[in-house]
């Protein structure tokens, strides 16, 4: 029987977010992406852009409209994360990121 060894449980959760960072040429970028799963230490996301392992990116969850039921508080600050793994899957990249400050 397989035993989960992660310190935080992963939650299957698809949330749109923006990824901000710098590309290989040093130019800033911002891309729309989404999470596939999230834990207190990191997330597994889809990205339209290749991200280098080791790079630090900023993840921002768009503020919901006033009329929507908010899963995320409108004032949630951006999250700094380090790219830990990445691979291509068709026309997107699957990226594992580790939060620089765990979310408890």
Please provide a written account of the structure:
By secondary structure, the chain is mainly β. The protein has a single domain (11-64, 72-99), classed as predicted glycosyltransferase like domains (Thrombin, subunit H, Beta Barrel). 0% of the residues lie in helices and 48% in strands. The protein is built from no helices and 7 strands. A 6-stranded antiparallel β-barrel has the order 2-3-4-7-6-5. Strand 6 (79-89) and strand 7 (92-99) form a beta hairpin.
Read across the widest sheet, the strand sequence of neighbours is: 2-3-4-7-6-5
First CA to last CA: what distance?
A: 28 Å
Number of strands: 7
The CATH architecture can be given as: Beta Barrel
CATH topology: Thrombin, subunit H
CATH class: Mainly Beta
Count of alpha and pi helical runs: 0
Tally of structural domains: 1
On the 0 to 100 scale, the average pLDDT is 86
The biggest sheet, with number of strands, parallel, antiparallel or mixed sense and barrel status, is: 6 strands, antiparallel, barrel
What are the low-pLDDT stretches, counting only 5+ consecutive residues below 50?
A: none
Shape: globular
Cα-atom radius of gyration: 14 Å
Strand portion: over 45%
Assign the CATH superfamily: predicted glycosyltransferase like domains
**Which structural class fits the helix and strand makeup?**
mainly beta
Return the string of H and E elements.
Answer: EEEEEEE
Q: Helix proportion of residues, in percent?
A: under 10%
